[in-house]
Amino acid sequence: MEKQHFTSKTVDGTTLIKADPLLKPYTAQLRERFAHYQRFKAEIEKTGGISGEISRGHQYFGFNRGENASETGIWYREWAPGAHTLALIGDFNDWDRGAHPMSVDDRGVWHIFLPDRDYADRLTHGSRVKVHVVSELGGLDRIPAYIQRVVQEGDADFTGQYWASPFPYQWKHRVPRLDVGTEGLRIYEAHVGMAQEAEKVGTFDEFTQNVLSRIADLGYNAVQLMAVMEHPYYASFGYHVSNFFAVSSRFGTPEELKALIDTAHGMGILVIMDLVHSHAVKNLNEGLNCFDGTAHHYFHAGEKGEHIAWDSRCFDYSKYEVQRFLLSNIRYWLETYRFDGFRFDGITSMLYSDHGLNRNFGGYADYFDDRVELDAIAYLMLANEVLHAVNPTSISIAEDMSGMPGLARPIEEGGLGFDYRLAMGIPDYWIRLLKEKQDEDWHIGEIYGMLRDRRTGEKHIAYVESHDQAIVGDKTLAMQLMNTELYTNMSVSTTNHRIARGTALHKLIRLLTFTLGGDGYLNFIGNEFGHPEWIDFPRAGNNNSYWYARRQWSLVDDDTLRYQHLNAFDRALQHLDATYHLFADENIYLLFIHEDAKQIAYERGGLVFAFNFHPTASVTDWRIPVPQKKDYHFILNTDDTAYGGYGAVEGRHYPWQDVAIEGRAQSIQLYVPARSAQVLAPETKCLDSD
Q: Which residue in 113, 123, 265, 585 has the most C-beta neighbors within 10 A?
């Protein structure tokens, strides 16, 4: 769907109230947060606007080819206003800390020029580099802030590399375009390192060769890559970023990442990056912390600069050079690697001074009190403005658990400008429901209401589980439903009550969430086929084992196991939107609900969805209202043997009858077995969903 736009004589950030009158008591706060953004914008306009200097820092800082007094060579620049001296070191000068001192200007920007006549054969592609910073902390060898390649040498030490490949990657495929008017965003969330079956760190090449085809076959139109930016601790899942402009070298080279993205584009798959601008690693040796010797360089000083729960540093978004660093980072990944957008991690942590920790956001006052961080809100507005200025079709997704109003509304209305927000309450609800109640005690109306409960006019990505639910200490949906019997009773030649119940509910929960929960959908790698194990990266606590940091593709490829059925169902699920454009239709109509019988039927996108959640009672001659006076055919049946069901339904055709029910003049009768659902299409709309 298209975002609603409201006209207003004065753009002051209060247009949101027209869509949500409950915001009216907070008119002053909405004006103030928009005015704060405008103050940031006014400073940026002095240096060329949003597409000027503020988003081109990577073309100035770090290592860039250029000229000096008509000589060609390499400029290296670093912002470090609190430092005493800086000197460039590396294998090009035998790591001599006194050989190449840098000069500083009145803005605290240090610089040095290395002319080609002296350094063309010394500072070359792949050369190891660092910068020696002398400050109040003494002398430390640091990795340049804008470095584009970092490699690990030995067990712990990370070193920057000057990266200027003599063979630049040649792009082969056009970037696909998602027509949001007809097709929804269907995201396959993946981690390259754990995307292979061998007990090791996977590579970009292996992902390109072995995993992209699986994603395309299932029908996803986007892949969301985690842990792309360099991070020293593998087990951090990529969330403790040290080098924001560097591709994590443990997965491969920049060229290999470009090949992955290019290949995905050739398959019609968008590539979204998990972007971490909410915090940074504390490490001195690898990251930005105290880079110039002060605690208030890129980050806030004192308690405000420390994220206690994450053991990381928090950016000071009010500083121009911090804005330039982060906004340039957005432009860099879009232009250099052709990413199609970002999932912004940890938005809640940015929005509030207490990071939203241990809080229940129960009312609108929670979004507008003195804990709201106006600097962070203004930065996120600028980030979305840069993102859409560089590539108008790029996608931004906000991970916010608080429910901040206007997060996914246009900036000119007073929103923050995101295209989508994650529907984070849905997976939490399913986990709680599965832990607290057996399915025979579920309240169908409550489930329906929860899945429909989202901010009007803001697009949501629905999901049952992401990487958060798959981490060790939690349980995936499949493990919640089937427990350890996933290891012993998944053979197609055996019958097991827990597995039968679990696979049936696995399908019903995903179908219900997919069709009711939002305007897009997300799945985490392997969860589509009920991967039997959680994620636990190698660490001291598990003897540095990779056993749980991998995906067992052999399970879904084995035609003697039931994992194949869940995988086939996920493929059919994705094709519901690809074929019938469900997500393009925001209108959902409840047709029928019966709590005692555990039945529900509703319409979306011209299709009718009929669920029978009853654990034992199949419903024969179930009469439900339909929107059109046409015969209906089921295009998806969760009880189909191809999806691990019993195949109890023989026919596919349901003729309409002139029998009024539930306010509709026409209805059909159908047979829906226990713990199953059917998706029905009117006769003229019936297509092969596979």
A: 123
Share of the chain above pLDDT 90, in %: 92
Q: Which amino acid makes up residue 401?
A: M
CA of 121: how far to CAs of 64, 92, 280, in Å? Answer: 16, 9, 35
Q: pLDDT category, 679, cuts 50, 70, 90?
A: very high
Please tell me the distance from the alpha carbon of residue 211 to that of residue 217, in angstroms, as a whole number.
Answer: 10
Identify the active-site residue in 230, 345, 533, 639: 345
Is position 217 annotated as part of the catalytic site? no
The DSSP call for residue 363 is S
155-214, pLDDT tens digit by residue?
Answer: 778 999 999 999 999 999 999 998 877 889 999 999 999 999 999 999 999 999 999 999
The Cα–Cα gap between 520 and 360 comes to 26
Q: Which residues contact 204 (CB under 8 A, 6 or more apart)?
A: 192, 251, 252, 253, 256, 257, 259, 260
Contact criterion met (CB below 8 Å) for 69 and 117: no
Cα–Cα distance for residue pair 429/321, rounded to 1 Å: 41
Does residue 116 have an active-site annotation?
A: no
Chain centroid, CA 529 distance in Å: 20
CA count, 13 A, side-chain hemisphere, 570: 30
| 76: nearest Cα among 102, 105, 108, 47 | 102
DSSP string, 624-664: EE-SSSS-EEEEEETTSGGGTS-------EE--BS--BTTB
Which residues are bridge partners to 159 per DSSP? Answer: 151
Neighbours of 539 (CB within 10 A): 15
**What is the maximal distance between C-alpha atoms in the chain?**
91
CA–CA–CA angle 647, 653, 655 (5° rounding): 145
Quick one: tokens of 32?
């103030």
CB-based contacts of 474: which residues, under 8 Å, 6+ apart?
431, 468, 534
Query: Which member of 78, 274, 375, 399 is catalytic?
Result: 399
Residues 6+ apart with CB under 8 A from 324: 53, 54, 55, 57
What is the 3-state secondary structure of 561-599? ECHHHHHHHHHHHHHHHHHHCHHHCCCEEEEEEECCCCE
Exposed/middle/buried for 438, CB within 10 Å: 0-12, 13-18, 19+? exposed
Query: What angle is formed at CA 414 by the lines to CA 271 and CA 4, rounded to 5 degrees?
Result: 65
Strands 109-115 and 103-104: antiparallel
SS3 358: coil
Compute φ and ψ for 474, nearest 5 degrees.
Answer: -115, -170
For residue range 530-552, what is the model confidence (pLDDT) as tens digits? 999 889 999 999 999 999 999 99
- Please name every residue paired with 131 in a beta bridge, in sequence order, or none if there are none: 88, 142
